[in-house]
Amino acid sequence: MEGLYIESSALTSILLEDSREFDAALESVNRPILSALTLLEARRAIRRDSRAGRIDAQAATKLLRRIRSLRTRSQVLPIDDHVLEQAEQDFHVEPVR
């Protein structure tokens, strides 16, 4: 597979649940595509769940390490004015999921 865009809620829920299927999908992708916002939101969700006691500190550290690893092998799209302008436009299908 050429590319796979990974959005925030998908990344967060997969990381916090069972990641075997996600890992298998990543193996078939040359270079995953993420936005800088996706990485930020995933890290915040992990820290929030750790503070709330939904995951322990060791699990949070492991998940944050996985996000750093994913970032190094991914194309990270910056959130610049062009991206923000595009995001304001109507999509062909709403809601985007």
From TrEMBL:
The PIN domain, residue ranges: 5-88
Entry protein name: PIN domain-containing protein
Pfam families referenced in this protein's UniProt entry, alphabetically: PIN
Species classification: Bacteria, Bacillati, Candidatus Sericytochromatia, Candidatus Tanganyikabacteria
Superkingdom of origin organism: Bacteria
